[in-house]
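Why do we care about 3D structure at all? Because function follows from shape, and shape follows, mostly, from sequence. That is the central idea of this module. The next example makes it concrete: a single protein chain, its amino acid sequence, and then its structure expressed as tokens.
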Amino acid sequence: MNQALKHWREAATLILAAGVGNGNKLLKHSSLLEKQAKNWLLKSNFDYEVLSLKRSQTSGFMPNAYVFPGGLVDHSDFSSEWVEVFKHFKKEPNFGLGSVKQQPRTRAPIFATDRTKLGSPIPGEVAFRICAIRETFEESGILLVIPNNCDRKTEQELTKVMPYDTNDISTWRKKVQENPSHFIQMCREMHCMPNIWALHEWSNWLTPVSGRKILTRRYDTAFFICCLQEKPFTIEDQKEVTSFQWLTPFDTIENYESQKIWIAPPQYYEFSRMCNFPSLHELHQFSLARALEGCERWMPLSVVTSEKYTQILPGDELYPEEPDWTGERKQILSPDLLQKRINRLHRIDHLDLYNVTVFLNIEPKYKHIHPLKVNGKYRPEIKCQL
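And the structure:
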């Protein structure tokens, strides 16, 4: 846990996709998908749904928003006591997660920071996965752990939520909510370990500086993704989370655009990415294949005009080589810049809270994928590869 950070706090979140019906089958229908791209987006063509949690209206950050499970990293997520829990993997790189191929100089700081210099033997790649799993347990009751003697190579398969006594799980959930360090004790007494290998690195978003005002609540958040065989029992905590929904990525976007729910720009972008994958098998294979490619930290830069609110993202021609990460330099992009003829686009335009368009024409880095709908249209070159 990096206590030296002054301008934001570190966090982790989990995109949890679960099969509904035939999510465990190898779907051989790429030719159909190529011919009927728009029809992929119908709910009947998605064989999985994604969990969203509704934040309390009293929340100090994004009240009433639908978000992925997750939250702030706790010092216990970096506790040396985890070394004993993962003792069978402590000699392997990142406890068996492997080493990311991305060059260290381009690696997102949330992952690149040497945690041993901060007093922890737990690598960031491990600790932030522990955080995401713990927060998911606290907020939704879904516990992603595996027995100590389990073969971690099952990461190649869709993840199965292990069955445990519901009363025991409920008791431990309350304890962990009261004190996150109890998560370590729970794993010891239940002879299990957090299933960090089921979580694949997906993205990294940093809360932007808002115009001339530096937001008091900013978060550097690691996004992971996990694909489950089937939907597990889910129950909100009625504290930070007041309700939940399992919906396909397309239905979530549709509900947002019809103003039934509100999601923040990072969630909109990630749901839009998942719209490329109507099959859970596809999504899992994609996330697994690029798991060690890495990602870059995205901090949107805001440009406000009388007509719209634009967030400039890395790769856009207007995005500076050295952005003002802290807001101390008062770096402001002039609205006049939006009138320039731009060759490289990567931005999100907001006409209002529910009218959003992603504009981009650059190649994604680290073998990632663009949102399905860009520049107001569905990309014509989309193909399904299984």
